[in-house]
Amino acid sequence: MKEVQQVFRVLITLALALVIGGIIMQVSGKDALNAYSVLLQSALGNERAIADTLLKATPLIFTGLATMIAFKAGIFNVGVEGSLYLGAFAAAWVGFTFTELPALVIISLAFIVAGVVGGLWGAIPGYLKARLKVDEVVSTIMLNYVAISLTEYLVLGPFFVPGMSNAMSQEVALQAQLPRIVSRSQWNPSFFIALAVFFIVMFMMRRMTIGYEVRVLGSNPTFARWAGMPVRRIIVLVMFLSGFIGGLAGAGQVLGVHYRFVAGFSRGLGFDGIVVALLGRNTAVGVLLAALFFGALRSGGATMEMFTRIPRDLIDIVQALIIFFIAIDVGFGWLRRRFAPLTGGSETDLLAEGAGD
Amino acid sequence: MPYLMMQDITKHYPGVAANTDVNFAVEKGEIHALVGENGAGKSTLMKILYGLEQPDSGRIMLDGKPVIIPNTYSAIRMGIGMVHQHFQLIPSLTVGENIALGYESRKGIFVDRTGIATRVRALSEQYGLQVDPNQRVAELSVGIRQRVEILKMLYRNAKLLILDEPSAVLTPQEVDKLFEVIRNLVHQGRTAIFITHKLHEVMAICQRATVLRRGKVMGTLEVVSTNPVEIARMMVGADIDTVQLTTTSRPGIRQLHLEQLVAEDDRGLKVLRNIELSVHSGEIVGLAGVEGNGQHELLEVLVGLRRPKSGQIYICDTLATNLNGRQRREDGLALIPEDRNQEGLSNDLSIWENLAITRYYTAPQSRGNVLRIGHLQQKARELMQRFDVRANSHNTRVGTLSGGNAQKVVIARELAETPRILIAAQPTRGLDIGAARFVHEQLVNLRDQGVGIFLISADLDELLAVCDRLIVLFEGRIAGRLTAAEATRETLGLLMAGRSTENEVTTS
After folding, report:
1. pLDDT tens for residues B207-240?
2. Which one of A93, A260, B113, B278 is at 20 to 30 Å from A313 when CA atoms are compared?
3. pTM, rounded to two decimals
4. What's the start-to-end Cα distance of chain B, in Å?
5. What 3-state DSSP class applies to A218?
6. Is A307 in the B-facing interface, judged by CB distances under 8 Å?
7. A322-326, B74-78, B307-311: which range is least confident on average?
8. Can you give the pLDDT at residue A31?
9. Closest Cα of chain A to B445: distance in Å?
10. Hey, which residues 369-428 in chain B have their CB within 8 Å of chain A?
11. Cβ–Cβ contact B347 with A under 8 A
């Protein structure tokens, strides 16, 4: 019942976003139905299109899972973007430094170092929250800027490559570059690493003690404290794990797409993880599906722009509408209002909050 | 004809009788105290009056006319205003903006800022509530924020003000100032309902007091012809439906010992002063006291959530002052917390998940960081049977259980592995008689098995029914120590109201 309701809510959200996106197109004189059919074609129409969709979904799976873990624990981590940048740089560094290592070793090492660096970066605001009660929203947002600027400084300063006009690092060793699987698409094996992480996260959340701790902490932190859970340690650990996965996202982009660190390359992949986690209703399966959905929108949007006269900004509009409808919680609001008279539940207002004993 | 009459108000939630046939009348121009322990039904009654809840039955007469109050908006329109314990202010807005929010006077399509400021100034002068309308709320102290809340109600022309434990968050100086303000309001024709469980406050400013207990009105008293002892006795009850369960106790070794314990609350005020007490195995020691006399902070200190200023805690002869909650539990401490829904359970999780929390991290409940869910669920089913938890399955969400069943989940968890010392805080609050009886039997059984039990309660019947020894807490001090034989309602009531008979004699 609960699952059905969840799926229902997500579908309403998507439908409304797409319909209103369509209205916006129609009003601005474009053929919405045509646009969507081209979008669908170019996202799923052929092998290359599907490969591109999976390519675009890959970082979103990582960042969506990273965000989800923190959300589940009731920690509003907006700092996945920062972990992603530091992880990306760390992976690039491994890739262009240990050039003698065989392929499997250097790739594994790059991902692990990226994860650890991203994790430690995430653990900083985690520690500040656990020890000093620093609000994590503020600290993680601020640390994002630090991470973006720090990595830019690294490629312009200590790791400057003479002759390079843009802020980017050396290319990683040839054997560290993940191969392309389908011709004319950048789709690469980092997608399967994302899938593996998805299964690990699912196992962790359902079966491991940390998953249980996250559930308790997220559902009622007061209870967790009174029952003697090591709440501070859990907060730091969760933020480490969240940052770790964020770091992996960075490594996937570097080793699979760019083959080097490029300053400012992400343009919000970490933030997109928030939307993915919210649309996925904070469940691992939901995150996977939401990431694939956005992957399709993005890869389709790029092609759509070429074949119709509809700019890919439409995709941003649809994404913004989804955020909007998640924020006002459409599906649920309808249900509540419909059934309120039957169940006797009353609408509470702002003033109701403080009236409890 | 009283200004406000609430007649035969009944409101039941699943498993909880919050209000049963409550009759409550307030005269125009009086300060009327509504007293009772937490869970006695004060808040429910006031929520009904303020339109936040609808009664199952009963009616409300305001100014001689029957009224229906479907929501807070209509309550406000009828002149009813409520000052909540947790302020409903927006810190980033100014005082004036907060006061006028939703009821702005306008000039065309613009908010009439000067008009609002003028009106706020006029009101604050008229009632002696000095505030600067242009200051941001974030910059104000708690006492001033409360003034803003009161002004907000006056700005909305509230004639009947409900003040929900207004002194709970204030310093003593701020309380004096608040009382002055309330008196002033009443002199100028307004009426106030004053919710509290501090009896000296009732004596200080109220004309009458209505006492609630377990959802029922115990009586309405004229303050001039009563005293704190009588009110306290009414609050903690005098019904005879609880049966004497105490048999003979055989106290053994010391399981819990507090040594010269001093602690402060979040405001930095001393709330526990040189607490010295022991609980031995095979005895139930009751800590009696009207709520808010330091019990909550004592609990926090006992489970390791609040660091004492000085003094020591021993659990089973281990010095525990610097141990964390988990270590203390491993040493044999178990706890039934005061607030079941917040501190004792997670309503969104299943029964088995709520039962698992104390031991999930060790074998055989988990192995190598992987939970053995099958084992935990099996164990949950056994516990549900042993403690008679009525639910469909171990997967049932705790939030759907009745109060009594939810408390049984807490008890099942805490007693799953027999503790050495059990701290039970208000363990029967909000429970019906059957469920309360079950809890008392569990406590006595446990005592007879040799567990030391520290029962913190505000319910005299409960304390007299099960305790072997009684300690009375008043304003953070031990006001008296009694054996079960010496304890009577009268002596306990006196001590709980602050008539100390002994002065800090350590007997244990």
Report:
1. 999 999 888 899 999 999 988 878 877 877 654 4
2. A260
3. 0.77
4. 56
5. helix
6. no
7. A322-326
8. 83
9. 24
10. 369-371, 373
11. yes
Say which of B344, B349, B370 has its CB closest to residue A208. B370
Closest Cα in chain A, distance from residue B274 (Å): 24
Residue A268's region, left for phi above 0, alpha for psi from -120 to 50, else beta, is left
Query: Which residues on neighbouring strands pair with residue B9, listed in sequence order?
Result: B22
List, for residues B443-458, the tens digit of each pLDDT value: 999 998 999 999 998 7
Task: Suggest the residue from A208, A210, A223, A353 to mutate for an interface test with chain B (most B CBs closer than 10 A).
Answer: A223
Q: State the average pLDDT over residues B323-335.
A: 93
Put simply, the answer to whether B52 touches A357 (Cβ < 8 Å) is: no
Is B47 part of the contact surface with chain A (CB cutoff 8 Å)? yes
| Tens digit of each residue's pLDDT (9 = 90 or more) over B394-441 | 999 998 887 788 999 999 999 998 899 999 998 987 776 677 888 898
State the nearest Cα–Cα gap between B492 and chain A, in angstroms: 25
On whether ipTM exceeds 0.90, the answer is: no
Structure-block tokens of residue A164: 């390079």
> Residue A102, preceding bond cis, omega within 30 degrees?
no
Does B88 sit within 8 Å of A354, measured CB to CB?
yes
- Out of A220, A353, A357, closest to residue B88 by CB: A353
Helix, strand, coil shares of chain B, percent, nearest 5, are 35, 25, 40
What is the H or E stretch that residue B67 is in?
strand B65-67
Closest CA to B337 of B318, B358, B319: B358
On whether the CB atoms of residues A10 and A286 are closer than 8 A, the answer is yes
Of A236 and B176, the one with more pLDDT: A236
